Amino acid sequence: MCELLAMSSRRSTRLTVSLKALAAHGGSAGRNRDGWGVAFHDGNDVALFREPTPAGDSRLAKFLEAQGPSTTLAIAHIRHATRGAITLSNTQPFLRELAGRAHVFAHNGDLPAIDDCDNLAYDRYCPIGTTDSERAFCALLERVRGLWVSSTSPPPLEARFAVVSQFAADLRPLGPANFLYADGATLFAHGHRRIQPATGAIEPPGLFVLSRRCREQNDPVDARAAPATDALQEVVLIASVPLTDEHWRPLAEGEIVAVSAGRILGAATSVAPVR
Question: Fewer CB atoms inside 10 A, N or C side of the chain?
Answer without folding.
Answer: C
